[in-house]
Amino acid sequence: MNFLFSRDSLYFCKIGKWQKRNKMKKIIGFFCCLLLLGACQQQKGYVINGTAKNVKEGKIYLQVFRNKMYFDVDTADIVNGKFTFKGKVEQPVLYGLIAGEMKYPVPFFLENKKIDLTLEEDGKTVTIPDSPLNDLFFLNAQEVFLPEFSIDQLVTEHPESPASAYYLYRYFTYQLPLDSLKIVRDKLAPSLATYPYVMELDSIIARLEKVEIGQTAPDFSLPDASGTEVSLDSFRGKYVLLDFWASWCPPCRRENPNIVKAFQTYKNKNFTIIGISLDKEKGSWLKAIADDQLAWTHVSDLKFWDSEVPALYGVRGIPANILLDPDGVILAKNLYGEDLQKKLAELLH
After folding, report:
1. At what angle are helices 250-266 and 338-348 packed, to 10 degrees?
2. Which of 24, 155, 198, 302 is most solvent-facing, going by the fewest CB within 10 Å?
C-alpha cells in the first residue's frame, strides 16, 4: 500500500483518497475564486445612494465633464427624493448631477466606492461624507475665482490629488504664463501622469509651445457663414488679428465695441480681423455678428469647445486674440481695450 505525506493536513492518507480530496479542494477553490472575483468587481465600481432635497419626483441625470462641457452618461428615477446610480469609472474624474429646474449640473468627483450623496435644497451643492477628494474639491470651488488664490500652493500642498490637477487644467492653462504653467505642472505627482486632466494639460502645454510670440502661426481652414472654406494663409501680407469669441460669451460681447473701433481705424492700413467663433448654433452666431456690427471675416465649425482651431492655438478661455504680422509671425497675444489700440497705433501709425 502506497502512502504520501501531506504537509498541509499533517497526516498519512491513501493515494486514491488524496486524489479525491484534492479534486474536491480544487472545486471548492474554484468557486471561492469566483466569489472573490465577484466581490472584487463589486468593490471596483461605484454605488451612489442619493437624496435630492430639491426634487421629490422625476428624472435625474448623471453627466461626465469633458472639455468644459457635460455629457449624459446615465439617468435614474427620483422616488420620494431618493435615487441610485451604479457603474464604474477608470479613474476619479469630474461628474455632475442635474434634475428638475436646475440650469447647471452640480459637480463632484466620482470614485469607485459606495457614495452617500445629498443634493441640497439650493440645487447648487452636494454633500458627500467620507470623501477627502471631494472635501478638497469643494473647499476650493469658490476660492479658485478669487484674485488671491494660489494654484501653486494648492498643487504644492496636494500634489497627488486629482482635484489639484483638475483646477490647474481647468482654470490656469489660460491664466498662467507658459513658463509658470510648466513649473506648477511639474509639481504634480508622477502617479497622476496618466490622469485625464494631466494628459490634456500636457497636450495644451505642447500646443502653447508652438504658438509662442515670435513663432509662425499654424495655418488652418474653417468655413464662413456661407460654407466657403477660409484659410489663414490667404491673409498673408496683412496684419491679422485672430479673434476667438462666441455669441454666448458676455465678456466677448463687451469687448466687441473695442474691436470694432480697431477695425474701423486701421482697416485701410493693411489690417484685418478673422473672427473665430466657438458657437454651436449658427443662428445665434450670425445674429451676434449683425447686432454687434462685426464687419470682418467670420469663420466657425460650430463645434463649441470641441473646435479644433482654438485647441490648435491652446485657447482655453474667451475672449482671446492673437496678433500676426504680414508674414504670419505672432506679435502679441490677448490685447484688450486700450492695449489693443496702442499696439496697432505703434505698428500702423
Report:
1. 20
2. 24
Confidence check: pLDDT of 7 > 90: no
Write out the H or E segment, with its range, that includes residue 348.
Answer: helix 338-348
Residue 44: the pLDDT is 82
State the pairing for strand pair 114-119/126-127.
antiparallel
64 beta partners: 71, 95
> Cβ neighbours of residue 182 under 8 Å, at least 6 residues apart?
205
| Three-state DSSP state, 109 | strand
- Each residue of 181-192: pLDDT tens digit? 999 999 999 999
Q: Give the number of other CB atoms < 10 A from CB of residue 103.
A: 7
Q: Residue 12 phi/psi, 5° resolution? A: -85, 150
**Interatomic CA distance for residues 73 and 84, integer angstroms:** 14
pTM score over 0.70: yes
The pLDDT score that the predictor gives to residue 349 is 81
d(CA 286, CA 225): 8
| pLDDT digit string, tens, across residues 249-286 | 999 999 999 999 999 999 999 999 999 999 999 999 99
For 2, the grid coordinates are 502506497
* C-alpha 326 chain-centroid distance: 34
Q: In terms of Cα–Cα distance, which of 334, 330, 333, 331 is closest to 346?
A: 331
SS3 222: strand
Mean pLDDT along residues 199-216: 96
C-alpha cell at 234: 490667404
CB 187 within 8 A of CB 161: no
